[in-house]
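BUG: 3D viewer hangs when loading the predicted structure for this chain

Environment: internal workstation, default settings.
Expected: structure renders.
Actual: progress bar stalls at 90%.

Input used:
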Amino acid sequence: MGIVLIGARPLGCLAWVVVATALGCPAQTPAAATPGADAVRVGVPLSPELERRVEVIIRNKSAISLDYAVTFGLPTASEVPGYDQLVGTFTAAGQAPRTATFLLSADGKTLAQFNKLDLSQDPRELVPQTGRPARGGGPNAPVLIVGFDDLECPYCARMNAVLFPAILNRYKDQVRIVYRDFPLEEIHPWAMHAAVDANCLAAASTEGYWNYVDYVHAHAADIPVEEKSMPKADEALDKLALDEGARQKVNQPELVACVLKQDNSKVKASETDAETGPLRLDQAPVLFINGERVEGVVPVETLYQIIDGALVAAGKTPPPPAPAAQAAPATTKPGS
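Structure tokens produced before the viewer hung:
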């Protein structure tokens, strides 16, 4: 049935309850329950004694505040043999009701929780990267790395330095790297402006985009950060973008118009994608390596292990063991 048992946390604190039986195992179908006071039947309320036992075990095995009242609906049929589904509702004054789904055995002796995970989709397709500038291998490269990046983030800058050249030197065209925008505007006042300028370059020149990204990451400390200096920060970022555009011989009037317009709608859309749906990001940097999530700055050797595993899963042979990580080369100022 594709069922995987994991620790679920409704209300942010409800962990494993009890699992005394292996669920979904075709070789071990639970024997029919002997009818009794604790017997569970679809559509029939639990007995007061059994309902109390269920509530107590949930409270004792979790950290649910006593402010929350717990009620249960009628048992319904589940897809797990020998178990019915039971929905608990948790309510407290001033809080929206929350629900959690449990499995209760037909004999009323085992309570369980589980999450059913969909394995039908390739994990690398969970993080869209269409239309973004790429580095490394082509669209069919066996490993895709999608990074959510903030150009003012010092940790993102460190990750950027690790990614290039170490990973690309090791894996060449086996790896394709894409950045998505995730500026943390609350703490990084010019990150949004930098992302918009980078996207203006990306529309005209992939090489120009990456030159800009590399330089801003490497020299972010040189850009003013005080609120009263924001016009100076924006001016410095715009000059870097325009100078890089001139170097790449892009259509200068179009680039100037894009930079002056400061349309951040695409960056905002990227933020929304990151913060909602299955990703729910709240920090940067975050990488997805063929869909596997990697948060923060990690040793390059850890990235090698993940990439090697992704290559093997794709039927490819990883490179020989890597030497010690190389230092990133000095970046060239855009337009120079």
